[in-house]
Amino acid sequence: MHSVLRGADATVPAGQAVAITGRSGSGKSTLLNIVSGIERADAGVVEVDGRNITALAEPALTLWRRAHVGFVYQFFNLVPTLDVLENVRLVLELNGVGNAEARRRGLAALADVGLRDRAGSAVDQLSGGEQQRVAIARALVHRPTLLLADEPTGNLDQESAALVLPLLLSLARSGGAMLLVVTHDAQLAWRLDRVLELRDGRLWEVAQSP
Ligand SMILES: Nc1ncnc2c1ncn2[C@@H]1O[C@H](COP(=O)(O)OP(=O)(O)O)[C@@H](O)[C@H]1O
Ligand SMILES: [Mg+2]
Hints:
Blueprint: E1 17-21, H1 28-35, E2 47-48, E3 51-52, H2 60-68, E4 69-72, H3 84-94, H4 99-112, H5 128-140, E5 146-150, H6 158-175, E6 178-182, H7 186-189, E7 194-199, E8 202-206
Parallel strand pairs: 1-6, 1-7, 4-5, 5-6
Antiparallel strand pairs: 2-3, 7-8
Helix pairs in contact: 3-4, 3-5, 4-5, 5-6
This protein binds adenosine-5'-diphosphate (ADP) and magnesium ion (MG).
């Protein structure tokens, strides 16, 4: 069997923002998927906020993820048949938030990313950069403990990309969320609190060059 992660171990304090780097195929996406419980590891433990999520069975794991995790993907993963606001408020509805409250919080999350006036737009009417900002609003609307982003700027032009990481960072900070971002952009990575490199299945602390 080919092991992708072998002893990858790190402790991230609440509210810290961490960049994860590593070459293609090093297991960055696998790591984020395991941290969020989308994939299961064959061995090892993931603890979030003192809770051992590896011990949770479905559907408890699904409920935990829905309540406590926000995920931003490289290719946005918005639902094309829903409009912008519907995409953002969906997670609130899944968490049992009522209609008026879901609408209010969805619009507030869109305002946070500067897209309040696009609430009724179809997703495909937005640019890539705007779609990623909607995805950020969706990832944060339920105030997750853990915000995960897998190469969130990988599919954006430079100008849009330059907006996305600072936005993720400031919204994660103001919401008190722990942020893990996979990024290849070393300059952007250093705007976060800490950089970890995934190499040979392990996480290595990267020291900032002077
Ligand atoms: N569903 C899968 N089944 C088998 N191997 C996979 C699967 N997903 C990823 N891999 C392998 O796991 C390794 C890590 O992949 P991935 O986590 O996507 O790396 P990264 O995000 O760093 O590019 C790679 O060798 C990849 O080929
Ligand atoms: Mg990947």
